Amino acid sequence: MLKKTVSCAFCGKGVGQVDKIVTGPSSVHICNECVSLCNEVLEEEDRQEPSLNGDPLPKPAELKAQLDEHIIGQERAKKALSVAVYNHYKRVNSGGSDVELSKSNILLIGPTGTGKTLLAESLARILQVPFAIVDATVLTEAGYVGEDVENILVRILQSADYEVAQAERGILFIDEIDKVARKSGNPSITRDVSGEGVQQELLKILEGTVSGVPPKGGRKHPEQPLVQINTRNILFICGGAFDALDKIISARTGSRAMGFGVRHEAKDELDAGQLLSRVEPEDLIQYGLIPELIGRLPVISTLHPLSDYALLEILKKPKNALVRQYKKLFEMDGLGLSFEDQALRKVVELSQEKSMGARGLRAVLETAMYEIMFELPSRNEVKECIITADFIQHKGPPTFVYRKKRA
């Protein structure tokens, strides 16, 4: 029985104030409340914040806020990617957790020029991890003419300056993944070395395996030293336009009715972007992706075709906006540059005619601007150049503001 004079050495509470006091060596005492508090402190220290490259891993909302600075629109895709990337790098930090976390590889579906590559590239820049882009159209099964599937890992290794540990935490973007779809939704009897065969070889790499790759790329041969890369923690983002996928979705979701007095729902009431947002794994299987590959791309996000307003915002607002880039280039030559609103709207109109999305903006501007970019650096009398709608349409010159002549 403890004496009433005994008290906890930490909080000073006596026997009557707590449930229990434990006596240790040298007559040091601690109460049950302080023991519980110490356990909570130790558990909190064990729960470390996920980190990346020594810095705290940005939360999903922080990632999206930074993506907003570079990418206009595509709100749903930005949120989906932010969550997937955050969960992926939390998984990388989990180490020897008692629960095995699955990889959060991502599939981006959307027309060309909607920002698939830019999303992946921006995420890698924000997280400061190695990033590489590979084109799925050049891939073939091992042993056939073309590029081995394992060689895609050479790109991420080169991006990481051949530091294997860094490469194993990078982001690898596989573009045009829809081009390796089977020629039909049914398994083929004949060999499909650039379609289903490539999908089969991608499976292990996407899930996580140790691959030996030649550091300079090319074909493997017995005498060549290979670099061993573990793909378990590499985040794979696959992107593709998936042309005509909206028709497959429409056939699945469209209602069909027969007889008089029955209202028919037109399948083309929804635009392509709205239809793509309803994509299901069964649609992708019918398109030609094998079920095993879809299973290794658990996060599927769709990107919508860009509206005129979105393209106009893309021209002006992001940190790398084309208008800002051209102004900076002219500023380096001591020249001012401005765009009339009608000129920018005409750029958007011509870009939409090309059906190239945001990529078309640069194509239109480069075509219009190259002549004056060739001419103006040599004309010291010009102070500022104002781009007009007529100039964008090649109907007239831009407006020039001249320097005042000195007396």
Whole-number mean pLDDT: 83
Helix content: 25-40%
Instruction: Name the beta content range.
Output: 5-15%
Structural class: alpha/beta
Note down, in words, how this protein is organized.
α2 packs across α3. This protein starts with 20 loop residues before the first strand and ends in a 5-residue tail after the last strand. It has 16 helices and 16 strands. The strands form six sheets. Strands 6-9-12-5-13 form a five-stranded parallel beta sheet, with helices on both faces. It has a three-stranded mixed beta sheet with strand order 14-15-16. The chain is α/β, with parallel strands linked by helices and 407 residues long. It is extended and about 100 Å long. 40% of the residues lie in helices and 15% in strands. A hairpin with a 5-residue loop joins β1 (21-23) and β2 (29-31). The protein has helices at residues 32-46, 60-68, 75-94, 116-127, 152-159, 164-167, 196-207, 245-253, 272-276, 281-287, 291-295, 308-316, 322-331, 341-354, 358-375, 389-392; strands at residues 21-23, 29-31, 51-52, 55-56, 106-109, 131-135, 139-140, 147-148, 171-175, 210-213, 227-230, 235-240, 299-302, 336-339, 382-387, 399-402.
